[in-house]
Specification:
By secondary structure, the protein is an alpha+beta fold. Helices cover about 20% and strands about 35% of the residues. A hairpin with a 5-residue loop joins strand 1 and strand 2.
């Protein structure tokens, strides 16, 4: 019985000393990973790679922060009225419900667009869309 009481006391003492290591206001040298809401608040960047849709070719990558959308290694089939959109999908309805960022050049590899008043956390895709033809040329899923 005495051995059980000693073991319980030792376990309690160990638990108390370990809990003191993680007390609020102390830094044990490691921080937990931020939650999704903390990540969004800290302005985490999302990115993705383009793929062509509807028999069109779109290549390159995109990164999106709270303030900028940047295309890298970008190229697209030529279109008369190409724009870049932030959307929740890749169809016409998603483009209509999305946010147009700006006109995009089909043959300029590096392009950067300023985002003002856009909550990028609301969007899961960057879409290249020909407004005149009402056609999605390609999209990149953001992650």
């Amino acid at each position: 019985m005495r051995k059980i009481a000693l073991a319980a006391t030792a376990a309690l003492a160990l638990a108390l000393s370990l809990s003191a290591c993680s007390s609020p206001g102390t830094d044990s040298g490691t921080s937990p990973a931020p939650s999704m809401s903390q990540s969004a608040a800290m302005g985490m960047e999302k990115s993705g790679d383009f793929m062509g849709l509807n028999d069109k070719t779109v290549k390159g990558s995109v990164s999106v922060s709270d303030t900028e959308l940047t295309l890298s290694g970008f190229s697209s089939d030529e279109g008369p009225d190409l724009h870049v959109y932030l959307t929740k999908g890749t169809d016409e309805a998603a483009v209509s419900a999305g946010t147009m960022v700006d006109a995009v050049s089909f043959d300029t590899a590096s392009q950067t667009f300023t985002l003002k008043g856009v909550d990028t956390a609301d969007y899961t895709y960057v879409v290249i869309h020909c407004d005149k033809a009402k056609a999605v040329f390609g999209a990149a899923k953001l992650s």
